[in-house]
Amino acid sequence: MIKRVGSYTVEFMHPPIITGYSSVVGKKEAEGPLGKYFDKIFYDSRAGQPTWEKAEAKFQQEAFIGAMTKSKTHPEDIDFVFAGDLLNQLISSSYSMRSFNIPYLGQYGACSTMAQGIIMASFTVGGGSARETAVVTSSHFCTAERQYRYPLEYGGVRPQTAQWTVTGSGSVIVSNEGKGIEVVNATVGKIVDKGIKDINNMGAAMAPAAYDTILTYFNDTKTTPKDYDRIFTGDLGQVGSELLHQLLNDDGYNIDSIHRDCGLMIFDRDTQDVHAGGSGCGCGASVLCGKILKDMEKGKYNNVLFIATGALMSPTANQQGESIPGVAHLIHLKCQ
Amino acid sequence: MIKRVGSYTVEFMHPPIITGYSSVVGKKEAEGPLGKYFDKIFYDSRAGQPTWEKAEAKFQQEAFIGAMTKSKTHPEDIDFVFAGDLLNQLISSSYSMRSFNIPYLGQYGACSTMAQGIIMASFTVGGGSARETAVVTSSHFCTAERQYRYPLEYGGVRPQTAQWTVTGSGSVIVSNEGKGIEVVNATVGKIVDKGIKDINNMGAAMAPAAYDTILTYFNDTKTTPKDYDRIFTGDLGQVGSELLHQLLNDDGYNIDSIHRDCGLMIFDRDTQDVHAGGSGCGCGASVLCGKILKDMEKGKYNNVLFIATGALMSPTANQQGESIPGVAHLIHLKCQ
Fold it and tell me: Where in this chain does the entry annotate a coiled-coil region (chains A, B) (predicted)?
């Protein structure tokens, strides 16, 4: 059912199917260019919860319930849930999934976690370990700022290369049968670290990882950008996207016209003061579930690469003078 | 190649094989009852590195290299590495694996991560997505104390229910062919939270999760403790082990004579001042790779359950008044 293509890519002969998906975002994301596409909006950043961390768990729960509703599944149908977020010890995920009684596998790939989760779900469904699986990831501007940077009250100035963590969540149901969008290939990324140490320039740290994974995938599958309708990256933002184009151009691959970055799609950089664009586990997840999969179902495009990118450092590692390791995981999606 | 047994258990018809394994521990662990079994000992808690965090990454690298050496594999043979640790953003794993150029999938299940990683590796190998995979996890007393509790210099008093985080790492190579120990069944655990809020009593928080997973497994496979030579738990310690026995006894399962807990095996509680026993991702991992798999290869026992347990809270969640969600993942190991 699964075969390996080239050195690193996996092909699903009987492709796992995304039978349901849902997105939940906050107010700022709802005010952006994709506002009308998201399934649910919390205008209150606490989503009625006493803390932002509990709010982020609530976002995940709503996205997961929305995805199950769309695929007509129930928690007891789900064999495994792959969940992840940016918070220490993945608390958004463990607390959000606590009430559902589903075998739980915590995933951490920073902002690449949505693609990682879909790959893990596809491995289990495609390999016969599961019939129905779920993936859910989230991020929240307020929880991320206070964990990674400064207390919000401090009002630290953000440089122009900084990205704005998306408050949002996305969830998909990956099944071994049914109607939906197929996961046909996957490439798991290697850790790539080019020595970038500026935690306000994640795009530059992640672009070389995206480049490595995309190039690996083209080599493994003997395809070129011309074979795809769209290539979406998770959240390289402006700086990282320009770097990616440049790196791929040097190898003779021009993706400028078909590449879109979720971090650039979700906010209007001219009016929303987000600097280099959006970021976070919830960025790629909410844009995938809010816009990309919907557009594919509508027939707007049917042959898509989705590459989510992650920066794997922590404040502790950064304070100890470490550079930022990047990673990028790729899935190839097709309409049935 | 893989079929589902009962509601939650997966059976590998062509079992993935642990073809190599290795363990690395610190001084205190080397002075414990299992000291002579570990493959490598760092008597310096910094392992020659400038910080404890970098030392923990070094422990992982040494364990991984040891496992590859035993299975006669090289980094370029490994299709995926599943790695995890207790540190925020899994930095021990991302920094340790950065230099190996292997597709990387970060796993987080707190102290259950070794079992989770072996299950993910078995899903990919058993399902055809990979030929050779690696799993590596670690923990370090000094990095864990300062992240989860107090600066070491503070000298906080530890209550008798507290466990001592093991400084150590274990790594296995999981392959689709070769000589070694077979992974025949796996049960992924659900999140179980009985409302325990005392972060100095992890055993009590994790025991109900271990109970849930073991009971699920017995029900799914229609087996009883009599069918196994040994049942090992990851790190329930004294408090959690007693609770587990009690809970299973209430269901008519007596495991007292065949159950061993890695947290109780690794230290001598009478002389090593560890209170309720050892804990940490590196506890189950180093005991599995240092003692259990070696004993199986020697023929001491050949039909074993290994259940690693994790407590999924964070200091932030705890400060916000949350209870501690537990999880436990089970693998059934057999000699070839």
Answer: none
